[in-house]
C-alpha cells in the first residue's frame, strides 16, 4: 500500500474552505480574509496551471512550481513572498492533519532568505497588509495614537517628519484636511521646506480616527514652544524616533495577525523586545508605509501628477524610488485607460 492510499481525497477548493472555517474559531475575521486572499492564488494555480483536483497529489515539487509561478505572476518581493508562503505552509500542515496531503509536505516549502542588509528602499507595506493592519487597529486599538498615526500615514502618504510637525490647529475636522507647514523656528521642519507646504484632504474614516484620538487618548500637553502637537507623548511633542518605533512595533505581523511568518516562537522572539521591533524581518518603517501608499494610489489609477502633488514628491523621484507597480500591471493600466478613450 502506497502512502497516497492512506490519504482521503479532497479538492483544493473544499480543503481551503474547511481550513478557513476551522481557523474562524481561532482568529479575527481580518486574518481570515488575509488567508483567503493568499490561498486563493494557490487554488487558482491548482485549477488552471497544475490541473490538480485532489490535494492528495500535491508534492514538494508542486509547491516549488507554485512558488515560482506566484513570484512571476504577482511580481512579488521577498518580504511579500515570505508572508504568502508562510500562510500556505500553515494550510498545508493543517491538510496533513486531515489526511489530505502526505505528512511532512509543509516542510518542503522553502522560504526566500531575507538579508538583514537587504536594501530597505525596496520594502513597502502592500495594500493587503495595510488593510489587515488598519482593520486590526480599528477593532482592537481604536483611538490610540498608533491607530490615528497609521491611518493618517497610509491615507496621505506623508512623511513621518510631516506628521510629527502637525499641531492640533492644523487639523480641520469640518473641512476634513490637514495643513502642512514648514516651521524651522520651532523645530518642526518639512523635508522640502516651503515647497512642501500644502493642504492634504482626508477621508471620513481617517477623520474618525483622529477625532477619537483627540477625544480619548491625546495627552493634553504643549511642546517646548508652547504649541499643541497633534501627536503627543506625556511630556509634549514626541521625538520622531518615538513615532517611528511605534510603526515598527505595530507592523510586526504577529501583532495584527497573531502569527509569525518566520516560524519563530512569538513569546521568545527577540523582536518582541520593545526596543528591538525593527529586527523583525517583516516589520516596516514609516517610509515603507509611504512607499506602499504611493504605489496603492498609482495602482488605483490616480494620475501621477495628483500623487506627486499630494505626497510632495517630484515625478522623476516618484518613478525611480516609489512606484513599485510591476511592468505588467502598468501595461494593463495603460490598456484600460486607452480602451476608455
UniProtKB/TrEMBL annotation:
Domain Core-binding (CB): start-end pairs: 10-96
GO BP annotation list: DNA integration; DNA recombination
Keyword 4Fe-4S: no
Ranges of residues in domain Tyr recombinase: 120-335
Protein name (record): Site-specific recombinase XerD
InterPro entries membership: CB (IPR044068), DNA_brk_join_enz (IPR011010), Integrase-like_cat_sf (IPR013762), Integrase_catalytic (IPR002104), Integrase_recombinase_N (IPR010998), Integrase_SAM-like_N (IPR004107), Tyrosine_recombinase_XerCD (IPR050090)
Native species: Halolamina pelagica
UniProtKB keywords: DNA integration, DNA recombination, DNA-binding
Pfam family membership, one: Phage_integrase
Alphabetical list of PANTHER family matching this protein: INTEGRASE_RECOMBINASE PROTEIN MJ0367-RELATED, PHAGE INTEGRASE-RELATED
Molecular functions per Gene Ontology: DNA binding
Amino acid at each position: 500500500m502506497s502512502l497516497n492510499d492512506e490519504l482521503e481525497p479532497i479538492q483544493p477548493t473544499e480543503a481551503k474552505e474547511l481550513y478557513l472555517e476551522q481557523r474562524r474559531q481561532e482568529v479575527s475575521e481580518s486574518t481570515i480574509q488575509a488567508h483567503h486572499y493568499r490561498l486563493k492564488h494557490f487554488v487558482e494555480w491548482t485549477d488552471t496551471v497544475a490541473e490538480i483536483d485532489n490535494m492528495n497529489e500535491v508534492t514538494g515539487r508542486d509547491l516549488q512550481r507554485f512558488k515560482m509561478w506566484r513570484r512571476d505572476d504577482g511580481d512579488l518581493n521577498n518580504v511579500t513572498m515570505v508572508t504568502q508562503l508562510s500562510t500556505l505552509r500553515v494550510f498545508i500542515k493543517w491538510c496533513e492533519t486531515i489526511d489530505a496531503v502526505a505528512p511532512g509536505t509543509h516542510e518542503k516549502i522553502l522560504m526566500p532568505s531575507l538579508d538583514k542588509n537587504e536594501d530597505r528602499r525596496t520594502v513597502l507595506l502592500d495594500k493587503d497588509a495595510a488593510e489587515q493592519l488598519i482593520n486590526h487597529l480599528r477593532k482592537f486599538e481604536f483611538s490610540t495614537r498608533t491607530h490615528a498615526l497609521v491611518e493618517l500615514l497610509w491615507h496621505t502618504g506623508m512623511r513621518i517628519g510631516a506628521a510629527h510637525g502637525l499641531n492640533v490647529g492644523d487639523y480641520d475636522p469640518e473641512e476634513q484636511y490637514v495643513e502642512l507647514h514648514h516651521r524651522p523656528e520651532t523645530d518642526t521642519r518639512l523635508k522640502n521646506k516651503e515647497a512642501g507646504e500644502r493642504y492634504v484632504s482626508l477621508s471620513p474614516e481617517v477623520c474618525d480616527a483622529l477625532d477619537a484620538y483627540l477625544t480619548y487618548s491625546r495627552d493634553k500637553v504643549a511642546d517646548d514652544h508652547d504649541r499643541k502637537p497633534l501627536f503627543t507623548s506625556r511630556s509634549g511633542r514626541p521625538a520622531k524616533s518615538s513615532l517611528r518605533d511605534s510603526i515598527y512595533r505595530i507592523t510586526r505581523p504577529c501583532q495584527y495577525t497573531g502569527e509569525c511568518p518566520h516560524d519563530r516562537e512569538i513569546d521568545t522572539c527577540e523582536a518582541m523586545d520593545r526596543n528591538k521591533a525593527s529586527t523583525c524581518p517583516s516589520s516596516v518603517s514609516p517610509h515603507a508605509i509611504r512607499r506602499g501608499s504611493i504605489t496603492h494610489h498609482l495602482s488605483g489609477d490616480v494620475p501621477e501628477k495628483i500623487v506627486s502633488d499630494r505626497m510632495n514628491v517630484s515625478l522623476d523621484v516618484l518613478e525611480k524610488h516609489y512606484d513599485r507597480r510591476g511592468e505588467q500591471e502598468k501595461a494593463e493600466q495603460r490598456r484600460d485607460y486607452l480602451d476608455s478613450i
